[in-house]
Amino acid sequence: MRSDRSQSAPLGLKIAATCGLLFLHLPILLIFIYAFTTEEKSYQWPPPGLTTQWLAVTWNRPDVWEALSLSVRVAAISTLVALVLGTLCAAAVSRSRFFGRETVSLLVILPIALPGIITGIALRSAFSLTDIPFSFWTIVLGHATFCVVVVYNNAVARFRRTSGSLIEASYDLGADGFQTFRYVVLPNIATALLAGGMLAFALSFDEVIVTTFTAGQQQTLPIWMLEELIRPRQRPVTNVVAMVVVLVTLLPILLAYYLTRDGDQVAGSGK
To answer: Where, by residue number, does the polypeptide cross the bilayer (predicted)?
Structure first.
């Protein structure tokens, strides 16, 4: 008797899945192709020829490096802020019982549930009312609002799967709070934090809407790409940069997936 796992999926389902994957990923493939086209002014299909000259052109564009540097710095600091705040919020919500706990949890995840334009307008209004000039730090604050949510969701799920008896046993054996966190809690939540951090970095790196309202005259890499599409100088350069963005954001997402796919294997879970 064949198990359910060994049964083949219906042909119609396979065709539908294939069509869905093609619909999602063919446009990304086109970005890679147009990064090597010899046509400079338009998106001609099929490309008249292929060349690697645009890689060197992109490498020598200082505006690309400035935008890339800003995006990396913003994403890195936003991720660090999110790791601290998200972990603390997750620990409080999962390990404590207090009035309004579910309300706090809802407020933490609300920024990522709201449309980005709402968050952007709210932040811009707040900065204007408090006379805070737009700067690097206003972008970081804007990105941290949704990066915290990503870390929080990963951390709170892992905290809830980690047995409280481990922490109690650590205290019974004479460990203080810091030692318990370092040797008991952190090893159990480390992969969840790493995955949440990488997802937060990827989200921050390619964020556009909130950045538009909080950056002022600065240009992160996605904002630079948007400007280049509106007023193009060398179209293939934009596609080369887009190809880099795809790779930079894809790798953390894949690593986060592989780190958390066995997240149910937590010490003391279910005990």
So the answer is: 12-36, 70-92, 104-122, 134-152, 240-259
**Helices assigned H by DSSP within 50-185:** 53-59, 62-95, 101-113, 116-129, 136-161, 164-172, 177-180
Angle (nearest 5°) at CA 100 between 94 and 102? 50
Residue in this structure with the two tokens 């995006």, named with its chain if needed? 71
| Distance between CA atoms of residues 230 and 212, nearest Å | 15
pLDDT tens readout for residues 200-220: 888 888 888 888 888 878 888
CA–CA–CA angle 163, 160, 157 (5° rounding)? 140
Q: Single out the residue of 189, 25, 209, 204 nearest to residue 117, CA to CA.
A: 209
Q: Does the predicted TM-score (pTM) go above 0.85?
A: no
- pLDDT, residue 77, reads 93
Residue 32: name the closest of 245, 229, 230, 220 by CA: 245
- Rounded to the nearest 10 degrees, the angle between the axes of helix 235-260 and helix 62-95 is 20
Decide: residue 130, CB within 10 A, 0-12 exposed, 13-18 middle, 19+ buried: exposed
Give the H/E segment covering residue 146. helix 136-161
Write down the CATH superfamily of domain 62-260.
MetI-like (1.10.3720.10)
* Inter-residue contact 213 to 142 (CB < 8 Å): yes
Residues of the chain with pLDDT > 90, as a percent, come to 3
Q: What is the pLDDT of residue 241?
A: 82
Residue ranges covered by each domain of the chain = 62-260
Q: How many residues are recorded in the chain?
A: 271
Residue type, 232: P
